[in-house]
Design a protein that fits this description.
662 residues, alpha+beta, Jelly Rolls, 4 domains, six-stranded mixed beta sheet
């Protein structure tokens, strides 16, 4: 059990107690640090979001053909991923819109019954059973309740209970409803639980071939994620006990290969053949990551072994991915794109990210996304995207040919200087690869495989990730990488000269005062390489910033001094501007708009045009003039300056949140 894992149970209870203080009017709110990363994939996600039904996707469908379970669930998970990386309330609004639609299509809301005549808190399916017998699967309940619980976890963690959704209901009220709904749905399957640590198919469903049989691992573990989440929110020990039992049973049925990969079968039992397919296995992987975070069944080393499963068994090269956890057949169309759902392992190996990013940009571009799982793939690419770091060439084994250099020997080296050796980054390399070529990172004693590329027909973009597991500085503050191929003199790999890093800088002057009842409007500007992403690292209640244009808007509800931290990010880094706004009593009858340095509205920031389009969530279209904030730092609700005891509570909350997100 790690220190973080041991922290989880009592911390969840303490967080709930401390969050009660957030309702006191003297508190400014909860501050949490968001993950630092690049921003390009966030805009790719926005390109994809409106592709199906204008952003509604499948929210109005039922689950009779599993549309909700294997489509809408991934849409909701993708939205949660975007909130986790941006902190933008827009994504909670979208998630709530979808969640409400899913709940409207639950059996008890529709008034339909299953094969027993029971209208329960589940989503029946008729697609897989003979004669279309209506049956509610545990795995479907898990897929659809986990996003509901995650909404509630995010709202509670970031203290956003008082924010108001477009339909007028507060985030806190929605979260409470979703927790109740998830508990009802979990309880629907209580009679399918075996205390040995698994769920089973209903014994009286005799029309099914597996009636009474324990479920495949992934089907039980899909509901295990909900159980962990409900424990975090309610503190009910029974939820943790069941989730921990699932995790212990799953881990006991895994074996470790000679290459360090963790391997298992679809149905469990002694490992044989090539194991579970990578699509169903991804459910087990995400559950195992949660289990490790809760100190249940899986250790840090086990999660690292899951990353090795991807890097050693699944990832063959930039165009080839195995269908199963143990290898075997490759590139089956129903499995290959599901490699993105393994991106939860990026914190263990940056090469998981670079492999999937290159795959998706080439074969599953955002503009063509038409399935929920692919949208989720782009959502995870946005959530885990590392910052860029530039490469430079070692002093030997390269022929300078102007805009690019050509390797003159086997094992030609490049290096990169990570901005932080403790944080991952990736090099965007324009390469011309004449033959199958690998790239490996040096740890001071040996090389570790980081990428494998097929031959190209000219220069293409390939990403090479710096792995924090091997922070060995070799030369001129750089970490060393080696290219490995069957070298042919005069025909080595060619690599373009690097693009100079161009991090952002905010150069506009913020407002300092606003009258009570007036609307503050601050059109921030900056410099740096596009694309940009603007956010508020402190979110006052009701404050918003347009992620594309930097337009900050806010209408105060009480007098006093409040702080803002405006953040501008690009793929190379971030800049922050801290300022205080004093809210004064109105001096006149008119309530106009306070223009923070931009008399003609949003300035030309050089940021990319926002093409988020209609959110399909009942909210205004998320275009370049009304996209809600992408808060990349901590989040704070507005209020008067807090007393010292409140600051102590806020500091402790921030520390708890930081540990939770490690």
């Amino acid at each position: 059990m790690t220190g973080t894992s041991a922290f989880q149970p009592w911390a969840a209870r303490l967080r709930r107690l401390l969050r009660l203080a957030l309702l006191l009017p003297l508190l400014t709110g909860l501050c949490l640090s968001a993950t630092a990363g690049a921003v390009s994939a966030r805009w790719d996600y926005e390109d994809a979001y409106d592709n199906v039904n204008g952003g509604d996707w499948y929210r109005d469908a039922n689950n009779e053909t599993a549309t909700l379970a294997w489509g809408e669930s991934y849409v909701m998970m993708s939205i949660a991923a975007l909130y986790r990386v941006t902190g933008d309330p827009l994504y909670l609004e979208r998630l709530a819109w979808h969640a409400d639609g899913v709940l409207d299509n639950r059996d008890d809301a529709r008034g339909v019954t299953d094969y027993r005549g029971v209208s329960g808190a589940c989503w029946q399916n008729q697609h897989y059973q003979p004669a279309n017998e209506p049956y509610c699967y545990v795995v479907h309940t898990g897929m659809l309740t986990w996003p509901l619980v995650e909404f509630a976890r995010l709202v509670a963690a970031d203290g956003l209970e008082l924010e108001v959704a477009p339909d007028g209901e507060t985030f806190g009220a929605k979260a409470a409803r979703y927790v109740v709904a998830a508990e009802e749905s979990v309880a629907f399957h209580d009679d399918q639980w075996n205390a040995s640590g698994y769920y089973f198919f209903r014994s009286d469903a005799t029309f099914m071939a597996n009636a009474g049989v324990d479920l495949p691992l992934n089907q039980s573990n899909a509901l295990g994620r909900t159980l962990f989440g409900l424990f975090d929110l309610t503190g009910t020990q029974a939820y943790l006990d069941k989730a921990a039992a699932l995790a212990t049973r799953f881990r006991s049925q895994c074996t470790t290969g000679a290459d360090g990969a963790l391997l298992w079968n679809y149905w469990g039992g002694a490992y044989a053949g090539n194991g579970e397919d990578i699509s169903h296995a991804a459910l087990n992987v995400s559950f195992a990551v949660m289990a490790q975070e809760h100190g249940a069944g899986f250790s840090v080393a086990d999660v690292a072994a899951l990353a090795a499963t991807f890097t050693e068994r699944i990832y063959v090269d930039d165009a080839t991915f195995s269908d199963h956890v143990g290898g075997g057949t490759v590139n089956t169309s129903s499995y290959r794109p599901q490699a993105a759902r393994w991106l939860v392992l990026t914190p263990q190996r940056t090469s998981v990210y670079t492999a999937v990013r290159d795959l998706y940009e080439r074969d599953y571009p955002a503009a063509g996304v038409g399935s929920g799982s692919l949208l989720y793939g782009w959502g995870l690419l946005a959530e885990y995207e590392p910052r860029l770091c530039a490469h430079f060439f070692y002093s030997v084994d390269w022929d300078d040919q102007g805009p690019h250099r050509e390797a003159t020997a086997y094992g030609a080296n490049i290096l990169t200087e990570p901005p932080d050796l403790a944080a991952p980054c990736m090099m965007p390399l324009q390469v011309d690869v004449p033959r199958q070529t690998g790239a490996a990172q040096w740890d001071g004693n040996s090389y570790h495989r980081a990428a494998e590329w097929q031959p190209t027909a000219g220069f293409v973009l390939r990403r090479l990730g710096y792995e924090t597991n091997w922070p060995y500085v070799y030369w001129q503050s750089g970490v060393l990488f080696q290219f490995e191929d069957t070298f042919v003199a005069g025909d080595g790999i060619r690599v373009m000269e690097p693009t100079a890093p161009d991090p952002p800088s905010i150069d506009s002057s913020p407002p300092t005062t606003v009258e009570l009842g007036q609307s503050l409007a601050y059109a921030a500007t900056g410099t740096g390489a596009a694309p940009w992403w603007w956010s508020l690292a402190t979110l006052q209640l009701g404050a918003r910033v347009d992620a594309a244009t930097g337009l900050v808007t806010w209408t105060p509800t009480q007098t006093g001094a409040v702080d803002f931290v405006l953040r501008l990010e690009n793929d190379w880094g971030a800049d922050e501007q801290t300022f205080w706004v004093t809210v004064t009593d109105p001096v006149g009858a008119d309530a106009g708009v306070t223009d923070g340095g931009a008399s003609d509205g949003a300035a030309d920031t050089g940021a990319p045009a926002d093409d988020a389009g209609s959110g399909g969530d009942g909210a205004p279209d998320a275009d370049a003039t009304d996209l809600d904030p992408a808060t990349g730092g901590c989040q704070c609700q507005a209020g008067a300056a807090p007393p010292p005891w409140a600051l102590l509570i806020l500091g402790l909350l921030g520390w708890l949140g930081w540990l939770r997100r490690r």
